[in-house]
Amino acid sequence: MELKESAIKAPIKGGNGGSRKTESFDSMLSGWARIAVNEVFGEVDGQVREDIRMKIEKAKLLFSPVIELGKSLLKGEMEILSLRRTVQTLTSELLEAQEVIEKLSDQFDEKRKEIDKYLYDMNGLLNPELAKVIIQRDWALLKREAHNTPQSLSILNFSVDQFTSRSLSAPVVDKVTILNAISQILQNGEIVKRGTDTMFFEKDRGFVVALPRCGRKGAEETASRLRDRIERNIFEATGKNTKIRVTISVGGLIKGITENSPMEADIDALIGEAHSQMIEARKEGGNRVLLEIHYDDDVAH
């Protein structure tokens, strides 16, 4: 290492006093020492700083993927927290919606019960007034179809005649039990098999079955199935070890419909005619079928 020339050639000023020369020389040595030390350690410090900087850069390169991964993990965690909040919000909203649905379901059940009271009677058959509206609609449809081909509407009316018992004692059977049983027989499709047929019960007249597009043969077959199936049904007498069977009388009207028939019919009057036939069947001893036929010659039987 070279010392600066200005330091080596520094003049020594002074007079005759030796001490002044000595102090000047000592000061000069001290200055050289500081310069030397600064030069040496300045270079060392620079190398150290460069080494440290290089190591830091190398460390940055080595740990850069880790740092990026850490950032990604932190971002993912933030997204997970956000999703958790979203799920909690949706869960809360879902619970509220479920409560609303349950309330609406209860209200719907109540409304359905009210509608069912209008649509159906206690035996599960159609409400008589609604049934008559449906039969009137069927009449109008048959009237339109009769423009090309004559049509028929059959109405059957039947009621229980009497009880027959294997016991000598007078049987006691709940009337509602019998009515419910007959209603179930009508609804199970065993006797009245078509979806277009209409069945209901009237307190003063008994059971009514309306059969659109059904002539004499179909009406007789349906009435025969009714008598046979209901007579085979066995009831238990209340409070007694007694087997009960019932018989029925069936009255019917087969009404022909042509293009000259009215667009609307008096449904109550038609049912009344079938009911009159049922009364006559009872008078003749019951357990029989009596049909009245009203149609022109051009109506298919």
Structure, described:
The protein is α+β, with helices and mostly antiparallel strands. It folds into two domains: 1-119, no CATH class; 128-294, Alpha-Beta Plaits (2-Layer Sandwich), CATH 3.30.70.270. Helices cover 57% and strands 17% of the residues. Strands 1, 2, 3, 4, 5 and 6 form a six-stranded mixed β-sheet that branches. A hairpin with a 3-residue loop joins strand 2 (198-202) and strand 3. The longest helix is centred in the N-terminal third of the chain and has 102 residues, at 18-119. The radius of gyration is 55 Å and the shape is rod-shaped.
What are the salient characteristics of this protein?
Alpha-Beta Plaits, 2 domains, 301 residues, alpha+beta, 6 helices, disordered C terminus, single chain, 57% helix, 17% strand
Write the layout of secondary structure elements.
Elements: H1 5-8, H2 18-119, H3 128-145, E1 151-165, H4 175-187, E2 198-202, E3 206-212, H5 216-232, E4 235-236, E5 243-257, H6 267-283, E6 289-294
Parallel strand pairs: 5-6
Antiparallel strand pairs: 1-3, 1-5, 2-3, 4-5
